[in-house]
Design a protein that fits this description.
Strand order of the largest sheet: 2-1-5-3-4
CATH superfamily: Beta-grasp domain
CATH architecture: Roll
Distance between the termini: 27 Å
Largest sheet: 5 strands, mixed
CATH class: Alpha Beta
Structural class: alpha+beta
Number of strands: 5
Shape: elongated
Bound molecules: FE2/S2 (inorganic) cluster
Order of helices and strands: EEHEEEHHHH
Radius of gyration: 18 Å
Strand content: 5-15%
Helix content: 25-40%
Length: 208
């Protein structure tokens, strides 16, 4: 587990856990799966059709006020690259970029993402192959089961966009909100370092 402080949150590169609202989700006394299907939605929780700007394109989704972005991405928009790990803001698997900054989509209301630029792992390099961070995760062996990998890559992408030459401590700090249960963190850090080196050298067509 990486160690270090969380100074990076001020630089917009460490995962932002703010803006939950899940605690406001109406819950049946019978539990979430046992609510009567025919019960009318209480006033104020009617679904709305909204347009989300995802991976450079407008996407229409039907969203209830208490839906979190993770659910809408995966279940409404079929963008299943973003993973659900803990569902409570502790693992980083669900990270996406909101206006270029990493956010936990399990803690962000989908309605709060209206009007923002949302980038998921599928949209890092749409139609242009792998992002260099993705490529070096594969080459350096930075993943095993891969479940945590999209979240790490999203966080690393935000770091390198903000700081093209991070030292190891800065990398560890940036990924301090991402948990991997399979690998050591050494290869993950090496992958980010190698991606940064390549991008600084301009070895990729557009620096990525
Ligand atoms: S699923 Fe969002 S932080 Fe774990
Ligand atoms: S590679 Fe399996 S949790 Fe990270």
């Amino acid at each position: 587990m990486p160690t270090g402080g969380r100074r990076g949150i001020d630089e917009g590169t460490t995962l932002d856990r703010s803006s939950t609202g899940r605690q406001n989700q109406p819950m049946s006394p019978l539990g979430p799966d046992l609510a009567p299907a025919s019960a009318p939605a209480p006033a104020g929780v009617q679904p709305r059709v909204v347009t989300l700007h995802v991976n450079g394109a407008p996407r229409t989704a039907t969203v209830r006020p208490y839906d979190v972005l993770l659910d809408v991405l995966r279940e409404e928009l079929n963008l299943t690259g973003t993973k659900r790990g803990c569902d409570m803001g502790t693992c980083g698997c669900c990270a996406v970029l909101i206006d270029g900054r990493p956010r936990l989509s399990c803690l962000m209301l989908a309605l709060d993402a209206v009007g923002r630029n949302i980038t998921t792992i599928e949209g890092l390099r749409p139609g242009a192959g792998l992002d260099s961070v993705q490529r070096f995760f594969a080459e350096a062996g930075g993943s095993q089961c891969g479940f945590c990998t999209p979240g790490f890559i999203i966080t690393a992408r935000a770091l390198l966009d903000a700081n093209p030459d991070p030292d190891e401590a800065e990398i560890r700090e940036a990924i301090s909100g991402n948990v991997c249960r399979c690998t050591g963190y050494v290869k993950i850090i090496q992958a980010i370092q190698r991606a940064a080196e390549e991008e600084r050298a301009g070895d990729t067509a557009d620096g990525r």
